[in-house]
Amino acid sequence: MKKVKVNLIDTPGYADFIGEVRAALRVVEGAVIVVCAASGCEVGTEQVWDYAEDSKLPRLVFINKMDRENADFNRTLESIKAKFGTRCVPAVLPIGAHTTFKGVIDLMSMKAYTAGGKEMLVPAEMQAAAKAAREKAHRGRGRG
Ligand SMILES: Nc1nc2c(ncn2[C@@H]2O[C@H](COP(=O)(O)OP(=O)(O)OP(=O)(O)O)[C@@H](O)[C@H]2O)c(=O)[nH]1
Ligand SMILES: [Mg+2]
After folding, report:
1. Is residue 63 part of a domain?
2. Ligand 1 midpoint to CA 34 (Å)
3. For labeling, which of 22, 56, 84, 98 is most exposed (least CB within 10 Å)?
C-alpha cells in the first residue's frame, strides 16, 4: 500500500483565536469541523464553515460527544443541513446515544466499529437504517 503522510493542524475554538484558524486554513487541503452532538452548531461553526467555503476547501463535519446526555445525532445533522445545505450527508451513523452509545457504522464499507475502533457486527436493528442512509447519501451527493 502506498504510504501517505497526513499532517493535522489543530486550531483553537475560541473566537479570540480566529486569526490562527484563518492562517491554518490558508495552508491546508481540507478541514474537519467538530460539532458537539448535544449543543449543536455554534457561532464559530458557521464562521469556520464560511472561511472554508471562501477557500473552496473540501470539508467534513465530525459530530462528537455522542456519549453525552442530550446527544442527538439526527437533530444535530438536521441543524447542519439547515445551515449548510442538504449536500451535507452522513458518512457514518452512530450506534446508540448517551449511555447506550456503542460505536459507529461506516456507510461506505457498511462495517461497524466500537467507539474504541474495533470492528463489530452491524446491529440487526440498524441494518435497514444504515442501508437507507447509504442510499440517500449516494442520491443526494453534490446536490442542495
Ligand atoms: N464525553 C465526551 N467528552 C468529550 C468528547 N470529546 C471531547 N470531550 C471532552 O471535551 C473537553 C474539550 O475537549 P477538547 O478536545 O479540548 O476540545 P476542543 O474543541 O479542542 O477545544 P478548544 O481547543 O479549546 O476549542 C475535554 O474535557 C474532553 O475530554 C466526547 O466525545 N465525549
Ligand atoms: Mg482544541
Report:
1. yes
2. 10
3. 56
pTM > 0.90: yes
What is the chain's alpha carbon radius of gyration, rounded to the nearest angstrom? 16
Shared-domain flag, residues 94 and 127? yes
Asked if 50 and 102 sit in the same domain, the reply is no
CA of 14 to the centre of ligand 2 (A): 9
CB-based pocket (< 6 A), ligand 1: 12-13, 34, 64-65, 67-68
- Closest ligand 1 atom, residue 66 Cα: 31
Choosing from 64, 87, 110, the residue where a domain stops is 87
Distance CA 81, CA 72 (A): 14
Contacts for 89 with CB less than 8 Å, ≥ 6 apart: 136, 137, 140, 141
Domain boundary among 55, 71, 87: 87
